[in-house]
Amino acid sequence: MSPADADPHAIEIHIDKLLAEHGMTLTELAERVGVTIANMSVLKNGRAKAIRFSTLTRLCEVLDCQPGDLLTHRKP
């Protein structure tokens, strides 16, 4: 495996779980948060390299959660 193929981070995002708990679609979440569906998909699938605090804030507001409900650190 080349360095480009290696997982760049050990952060897991739990948008799928929270969407299911709220009976919400990814499209609806993207609209309510104010980001594109493409960007929300990148975030949901763990391919994002960064997240703005303003986006994290909106995610927490819309999903009625804390940042720790959205993100966890995967231990080796």
Please explain how this structure is put together.
The protein is mainly α. It is 51% helix and 8% strand. It has 5 helices and 2 strands. It has helices at 15-22, 26-33, 37-44, 53-63, 67-70; strands spanning 11-13, 71-73. Strands 1-2 form a two-stranded antiparallel ribbon. Helix 2 (26-33) crosses helix 3 (37-44). The longest helix is centred in the last third of the chain and has 11 residues, at 53-63.
Summarize this, please?
With 76 residues, the chain is mainly alpha-helical. It is built from five helices and two strands.
Question: Which terms would index this structure?
Answer:
single chain, 76 residues, mainly alpha, two-stranded antiparallel ribbon, globular
Strand content: 5-15%
- Structural class determined from secondary elements: mainly alpha
The helix fraction, in percent, is 40-55%
Shape category: globular
Q: Overall mean pLDDT score?
A: 91
- Cα-based radius of gyration, to the nearest Å: 13 Å
Number of helical runs?
Answer: 5
Unreliable residue stretches: none
Main beta-sheet strand count, sense and barrel state: 2 strands, antiparallel
Please state how the strands of the largest beta sheet are arranged side by side: 1-2
Distance between the termini: 17 Å
Annotation, overall tally of beta strands:
2
